[in-house]
Protein 1
Amino acid sequence: MTTTVVQTTGLSKSYGPTRALRDVSLSIERGEVFGYLGPNGAGKTTTLRLLMGMIHPSAGSAVVLGLDAWRDSVKVHRLVGYLSGEPALYDRLTGRQHISFVSRLRGRGGDRKAGGLADRLHLDLQTRARSLSKGNRQKLALLLALMSAPQLLILDEPTSGLDPIVQKEVLALLAEHTAGGGSVLLSSHLLAEVQQVADRIGVIRSGELIAVESLEALRGRSLHHVSALFSSAVAAASFARLPGVRDLQVTDHSLTCSAPQSALDALLKQVAQHDVVDFRCAEADLEETFLAYYGTGDHHAG
Ligand SMILES: Nc1ncnc2c1ncn2[C@@H]1O[C@H](COP(=O)(O)OP(=O)(O)OP(=O)(O)O)[C@@H](O)[C@H]1O
């Protein structure tokens, strides 16, 4: 049995002259959380809508749970828990009525699970959708995506508008989902959020998938801030030629730079060639490492 739940091949979408998505090939495996990261307008929503068969690709294809996303979109909708970026709810229906309606539509129950989810998300199911706040609408839409325990969740910025406590609960729910063998495609523009649950991240920029990397690998490349003070002036050249050293600044008696873990040994040995008065080395947080590699618009393959 195949373990691939999403497979796109050369997936592309243009809106008139706008090339929203270009030649994206990626796969997501069973049991993994794939974080899909990119700034506003990068093409995240377009990708997710293509996977749900809501729009037709200009080129390439998308296979979701073994089904062609466009031709078999009705089946895909039944099988996938999808949260759109702008959830559509029925203003006159309460949360409870939405649950009954959606579970009948999917024909896979989920009503019982929904009560537990509502408790965990602190959501009142008696209120009509039109009276719900933005955050509570988001919670209800998420609950509807999660309640029938689909094999695959495709979530467009699921924690947007939620307070930090509920955000944490949502991430916990996603972790439980994958522990049970489910998979998640989670779009976001925040690494800080995605890194808490994702196994791998894909970085999209201007419609192109510029990197796919495991969180573990990203952590392995985690940058360190290094600073040293010497008793006499040092030359920048001997440090500048060390592989991996970035943002090097040597001014007279002092040095500052950033370097991935893999470059530290050589850097330290070079520093030790001189008479050291003070030395500091601190690991940067992952967000900073991520921005250093992917934040500039440079194309680094992972
Ligand atoms: N229906 C449409 N018609 C024309 N252009 C569109 C349409 N939908 C998206 N676009 C354009 O395609 C590009 C990708 O948009 P998309 O919504 O996929 O980005 P995104 O990464 O989801 O952004 P955000 O984080 O702001 O939601 C943008 O340039 C956007 O303006």
Protein 2
Amino acid sequence: MSIHTHTHIYKLASKLHVQSGYTVIFFKYLICKNTIYTFIVPFLISMLILCQPHLLLVSVEIFLQALEDGLKRADADPSVKAVMICGENGKFSAGADIKGFSSPKRRGIALGPIVSLIERSEKPVVAAIEGVALGGGLEVALGCHYRIAHVKARMGLPEVTIGLLPGAEGTQRLPRLVGVPAALDMITTGKVLCLVIPPKGVKICSLPDVDALFCNSIFLPPGQPLGPRRLSLKPVPKLPNMEAFLSEALVKVKKQAHGCLAPELCFQAVKAATEQPFADGVRREQELFNVLLTSGQAQALQYAFFAERAVQKWTTPSGASWKSASPQPIHKAAVIGLGTMGRGIVTSLVKAKIPVVALEQDLEYLNMGRKAVMFLLEREAMKMEQGAQTLDFHNPARLQFTVDFDVLRDVDLVIEAVFENMALKKEIFHKLSRICKPGAFLCTNTSALNINEIASATSRPQQVIGTHFFSPAHVMKLLEIIYGHHTSPTTIATAMQLAKVLKKVGVVVGNCFGFAGNRMMFPYAQQAVFLLEEGSRPEAVDQVIEDFGFRIGPFRMSDLAGLDVGWRSRKGQGLTGPSLPPGTPARQRHGHRYSPLPDLLCENGRFGQKTGKGWYQYEKAGGRTAKPDPWLHSFLSQYRDTHRIKTRFIDQEEILERCLFSLINEGFDILAEGIASGPEHLDVIYINGYGWPKHRGGPMFYASTVGLSRILAKLQKYSEAHPDVPGLQPSAFLKKLVAMGNPPLKEWMSYLSRPNNKL
Ligand SMILES: CCC[C@H](O)CC(=O)SCCNC(=O)CCNC(=O)[C@H](O)C(C)(C)COP(=O)([O-])OP(=O)([O-])OC[C@H]1O[C@@H](n2cnc3c(N)ncnc32)[C@H](O)[C@@H]1OP(=O)([O-])[O-]
């Protein structure tokens, strides 16, 4: 942090003018008409550096002190006519250091009073925003008398996404500047406004215009009163129907929150701005901020923020890591199979501007796939302003459809997305290995199959990798990346880079049946069905899971995904269907408890939403409104009678614990086997791929908050009651951690001794 002199100001000013792309904009919300203040005036002296080279990771105490000192000096120095606050290295500020919120010492440090100090300054203060201005950074800008922004600046108050609210008076100033609807929208969602494509009403000036602006009346002559520029003195713009607007907005905020506290408290803070004078509103903001700060949800969300970044730094048990591996560029890709997954993957690639060849087995399937892809792309283009031109998907150089494998000769990467059928996948990989250029990477989109076996069909197993997309693939953020025995670090790095380009979160995991995500899902789904056998109903189980914060419970999810998908997989595993040896007990497989309920539903043609019937009934085939189905209830009663299962009432606690603790239990086994290199990996997978509520931090973080001893005790109790269910037998690693005194999550992995056989 430093205070710069005249010379630096001139330098910055000339940079702003000369460098192409720099324009002054009227930021829709933050800059109103007549607010441009020219900072090329020769007598501008003090510039405060708000950002260190890499975002705001300078000590908060030093930063705030320097800001305060600089402002006081500028105010006292008669030669200073104005102050400009800007960032260094092209970034204004990413806000407060999130790590600081977990330190009790840091918690007391307040930015609000400094923002007020800026606003009270007798000299005009201008925020020159370049790069990001987020959270506390934007709140500082709101305290300034003028704000100018680079056309590519990104601004927002994302505190809600880390379980907080803007705690430096932002909830009180923003509504005064932009009005309640826009302020509520920004503060309760945390959306970051990107101005590359200006929103309606935003004027972007070309460079000559900027010059004209500087020479015109917009420049505020020194000595003019700053009162009207101080947001805290302005009233919140009135709405004719404020009360009705606020009650409607609250309903919307609550609906979208799914049990997360922060959006509603953000709402309350903005509402206070509409009802109370500024100072009282600030006090209310502080109260609400403190409630959030000490809530477990803020901790969970902040953990999730860092976990998402931590998984980018992947490692494997063999010693390969992100540090030493470089990704290869992907100039052109191919997708094989245009079913539900393939269509989404093609759409994702087109959106990321990677030229794609989409391949199907015959013309009939190709035409069906083409229609579906075009439909998805049209819809995506409509969501983006100028999207259609940008995506340019009618251009065959961008998107080509074919049935001819020879067309794949020049692609850099292939994603196979055909049925989950090992023989078919091997046949395709064998073909690809012969046809594709030697450097091409071969990815398989599978949710469970063995990557090593697929790779064995090729002559380049080092370039074969699993890329498990989640449906709908153009929407869901998770990409589970599975390395096999022979997968090279370059291949892993390339798949991770692909995830980034597709704007997804890539998580690297090892190869086992179901990998990390689905493997943890199996015992969870199994418990859900066992609960039905024992007396529960789909709607009761779903309700408990949805009340916990999942978007959708296991039965609604199963109906949405299609029951036939799991049925096909179980048939393939020899668990059901004609290949089952005669005399196999209905409710047992390989000596363990098995529920044939999902198979029986499929045999009755109940595949879920697509057939209008599954665990629920729907208004029609393809319908989406799930209603409890009396047929299913009597079917369950008959089933229990047939198998002499005594029905009992199962309370919500048991439903939640059996479903979630069995999933978590599997997670501990996965960690112990080195399939995932840390609990954050499993948490990121669950938050981004399985709808785990982010404000609960992911399953392993949740386990750490519940307490491992409690989870172990409950698993022991349930496994005693159900000794034939392996998913309830406590994991040895969980037991070990409990025996070691329940260490914090970040230490768990240090309790594993693993061979480190470097590649
Ligand atoms: C009193 C109350 C005041 C106020 O109301 C409260 C706040 O301001 S709350 C704050 C409100 N602000 C927010 O919520 C903004 C949160 N940040 C972001 O949204 C993105 O990081 C940003 C868009 C800035 C850059 O994206 P990108 O270019 O893709 O880069 P990246 O994401 O990979 O990050 C690079 C590195 O920086 C790290 N790091 C980043 N920000 C912070 C931070 N605030 N803190 C600590 N660390 C932070 C990040 O962990 C990573 O570290 P590493 O060790 O290299 O893995």
